[in-house]
Amino acid sequence: MRERRKQLMGAAGAIALTAGVVSVATGAQAAPSPTASVVINEVYGGGGNTGATYKNDFVELVNTGTAPVKLDGWSVQYASSTGTSFQATGLKGTLPAGATYVVREGAGAGGTTEVPYDVDGSIAMAAGAGKVALVSAAQPLPSCTIKTGTNPCSALPQVVDFVGFGSAANDYAGTGPTATTSATSGASRKAAPAPVNTADNKADFALAAPSPTACGDACTPAPTGPRTATIAEVQGPGATSPLVGETVAVEGVVTAAYPTGGFNGFFLQTQGTGPEPRTDGASDGVYVFQPGTLSPEAVVGNFVKVTGRVSEFGGLTEISTTASDVVDAGSEFSPVQALTTGWPTSDSARESIEGMLFQPTGAYTVTNTFGTNQYGEVGLAVGTTPLLQNTEVAKPGSAESAAVVADNAKRLVTLDDGSSTNFTASSYSASTCGARPVPCLLNADKTPAYVSTTKPVRVGAPATFTAPVVVDYRFNLWRFQPTAQVVGPDNATSPVTFANTRTAAPDEKDLSQLGTPDLKVASFNVLNYFTDLGDADPSCVAYYDRDSSGDTVRDGCDRRGAWDAADLARQTEKEVSAINALDADVVGLMEVENSAQFGHSRDETLSRLVAALNAKAGAGTWAFVPSSTDLPPTSQQDFITTAMIYKPATVMRVDRSRALGEQSGDGQAFVNAREPIAQTFKKKTGKGDKFLFVVNHFKSKGSAGPFPGDQDSGDGQGASVTSRILQAQALRDWVPGVAAEYGAKAIVMAGDYNSYTMEDPLDVLYKAGYTDVGSTFDPGRYSYSFSGLSGSLDHILVNEAGLRMSTGADHWNINSGESVALEYSRYNYHSTDFHDPGPYRSSDHDPVVLGLKAFVK
Where is the LTD domain (predicted)? Predict the structure, then answer.
């Protein structure tokens, strides 16, 4: 359950207001400077942790100048040690010269002492390392790079002060971050005797026991009683309420209520408002946070009066109250109407309708299903297409690439389920888990919303809203909340329906655009298909299901994939369903176990997969291409490998299999990737031209390789772009010689290149004369979905002769857009069984299929 901060308590340590001129906050201050008046004095992220004295995290400010400084409109912001997304807590009041000011943040289960504070936030900070910024604006900092990048967060002009705390922080002021903090120590600015400020975190801060001292009434005088206000006055025209910290009394109509699911509250809207928003930028809706049993008056359609304290929770303006402070306001009121305007394209316009009833109109498309399994949420894109990886359709670093990023931001909104339940949360607590030696899933008796095997929610599917929602902002995302919690698997109160876009097989029309194909080839990443299982190695650590039984290997060993025989059986039946349904004659596979690493024949796992395929398709339907003798020593090979299978009845192998086995040593192109393999084929019966089929699996984007430029530069290509460029160059130089050796004019290169279509590694091959058949014959469809963005990492590239053989191509979208809940690795996570033996979510990549004529035209 998402933690909420404690109710307001009286601030301690009041300091008399210093006489003199009040300094007004502006956004013109440069990034961290030794001359700044107000700076960060102490950072503590261990609040509530085991061993902590204080219950909450906090950030303390100090005014080192000689005049008071007005903090209204400023914020304290936090990001993780390596993150680029900041959460903000708004500030208010005036900080006297020499005084300190405490921003209290998220609470934990430990600690015994309340943190005195001037502003109450809710950000959960890390105990050991993170980044804190004092910002002369309320809006969260935009996405920015690390200290060594071209646009570090610490150098943004609105940043007044910046502290990277802990050695893992990748941004900081000066020469380095502070020492690593803990549950018992924060980063405290040195005093000699005045606070030391050289704008260098490493030099200015030392570890010390946390010692928050709040300013109290001298900074933010306590109100004398509830202030009667309208909801619009509470919201104000900006991102932060102008009434933060004040107790108000407001009236409105309940538009949504959540007595279950952890939200602990309801939405309230000014009577008679809608279907148009206000013109002054203030919203007529607000969230009312009411912990414990929800007030009996908090029923959708009721007109109520609420008395409570105004605060900002992760960017959402809300009123915190108790059940007794929610009372009937009478039966004489004007009902509200849902807004019918289109989804706003800017944060400021969205702020103007935050908390209001909204009826989405026009086209919406599913763009993200990864979080559905964990949080019961679905990412949506306004329009008829999902959001795109910028480097899928534009050159890295180009203006066109930036335009894609901007378009994504304008079109994204998340459909939530009206709850804060983490459906995959786990615990090691003996009292919770019954003394099990492995974790237990805390919400195993529940089922996330919007997951189904018969009514699937898939990336690219149209979404139709049948009921209004409420505009909400939580966890750095704008959201549509249903007016009541949606509970799976029935999803009875869902405000939206989704089209079922599944297909039973690749699209024959796409494959036959230039004539009926004589053969089909395909590329398919089979998601760590291993037959050496996790439970056979005591060093392996599993991901566990609701019965604390392993599903798949997590870490601790070299094995990957299925944990035990039952898991392998579930994975196998899905892979077999998918591969047989491809109806391809030759299939290139990625992420198959390299069995030589476990003391077996290198092709042991591949042979077992082929046996399973033949058990379903008929004896002899499939065969595998044996591993090449060109491969390097096993010590230079990966634990996964590329492989080929084919149908002996329709195609025949020409001579031996080949591999690029001379580029796998230190400093060579394939030191961190799988060696390309190749085999020449031709049609089995009748006449036909030879074609060389090559299978590739380049270095992933997730970690940096050994070459200069392998660090993520922020241009959208991820890490290890130099590695992938070198691999593309080596492939380019190797393949023509193999094709010439066997007299094959046509070259077909398939695989997981870990590169989106417009990225630099693929550009190496385009310039060498190769064409990507996926984007040529099947534009607008993609093989992969990551962070709600669609693109193709899987490609089939052909040379000029191969293009003349090609009849069409299809991305068979059976995996990337499906909820991960359907994957074998998430078996038995929920009270509903989502396992199905069919092809859907057999992997995280979609297969790509190419039709070929037997002859080069």
Answer: 26-167
Token digits of residue 250: 């407001």
Distance CA 501, CA 456 (A): 8
Domain annotation covers residue 704: yes
Q: Over the stretch 269-299, which tens digit does the pLDDT of each residue have?
A: 999 999 999 999 999 999 999 988 999 999 9
Compute the distance between CA of residue 554 and CA of residue 531 in angstroms, rounded to an integer: 16
Q: Which one-letter amino acid corresponds to residue 19?
A: A
Show which of 473, 498, 523 is a domain's final residue: 498
Q: Which domain holds residue 83?
A: 23-218
Q: Is the peptide bond before 489 cis (omega within 30 degrees of 0)?
A: yes
Q: Which of 298, 317, 311, 305 is nearest to 255 (CA)?
A: 298
Distance in angstroms (rounded) separating the CA atoms of residues 490 and 477: 26
- Token pair of 559 as six digits: 């094995």
- The position carrying tokens 């609701």 is 546
Structural contact between residues 542 and 438, judged by C-beta atoms closer than 8 angstroms? yes
The CATH number of the domain holding residue 524 is: 3.60.10.10
pLDDT tens string 566-594: 999 999 999 999 999 999 999 999 999 99
Q: Specify whether 263 is located in the same domain as 125.
A: no
Instruction: Categorize the per-residue pLDDT at 11 as very low, low, confident or very high, splitting at 50, 70 and 90.
Output: very low
Cα R_g (the chain), whole angstroms: 30
Q: In this structure, are 179 and 254 located in the same domain?
A: no
Q: Report the predicted TM-score, pTM, of the whole model to 2 decimal places.
A: 0.82
Tell me which H or E stretch contains 53: none
Give CA–CA dist 697/699, Å, rounded.
Answer: 7
Range with lowest mean pLDDT among 261-275, 312-326, 599-613:
312-326
| Domain total of the chain | 4
Q: Are residues 210 and 294 in the same domain?
A: no
Amino acid sitting at position 531: T
The torsion region of residue 804 among left (phi > 0), alpha (psi -120 to 50) and beta comes to alpha
